[in-house]
Write a structure and sequence with these properties.
Aldolase_TIM; flavoprotein; four-stranded parallel β-sheet; FMN; 4 strands; globular; about 10% strand; TIM Barrel; oxidoreductase activity; alpha/beta
């Protein structure tokens, strides 16, 4: 499989301890879907163990496009169990369900992509339980160097 050939080549060149891979086995946009994404994800997680890479970062199928509520799934649990290194999840997590995923050993780390984008000092906001700024998908990938990725407000200094 091409992805594994790339992982092997990069690990051999720079060291496995400097290699991580992000996978989205449940992605199905642009004809990228798989007929059995769970089996694909488990296969990849198991296969990556051979190379001893630093981490495997997987995206949940529950990735949210809006702020609707959802029920937490254990969709990546089989992959988490299959991979022997550091396991990272992403896909619409907030502070509470991220902490819960770590506490329940469903992951080692949680990535907060859109939340970090719209809240440049997200750890401080989490620490203070401060309100979060909602991301604006309409400003993603704009050619404007000011509007979008760089114009979200920082939390006011509370000291």
């Amino acid at each position: 499989m091409f992805a594994l050939e790339v992982v092997e080549a990069v690990a051999n060149e720079i060291g496995a301890d400097r290699v991580g891979l992000r996978l989205s086995p449940y992605a199905d946009y642009l004809d990228s879907g798989d007929s059995d994404p769970t089996a694909l994800g488990v296969y990849m997680a198991e296969s990556l163990n051979k190379y001893g890479i630093l981490y495997c970062h997987m995206v949940e199928p529950r990735m949210k496009l809006a702020e609707e509520s959802f029920e937490m799934t254990e969709s990546l649990l089989h992959m988490r169990k299959a991979f022997k290194g550091t396991f990272i999840v992403a896909g619409g997590y907030d502070k509470d369900d991220g902490n819960k995923a770590v506490a329940e050993n469903r992951t080692d780390l949680v990535a907060f992509g859109r939340l970090f984008l719209s809240n440049p000092n997200l750890p401080k906001r989490f620490e203070l339980n401060a309100p979060l700024t909602k991301h604006d998908r309409n400003t993603y990938c704009l050619p404007d160097p000011v509007v979008g990725y760089t114009d979200y407000p920082f939390l006011e200094d509370t000291s």
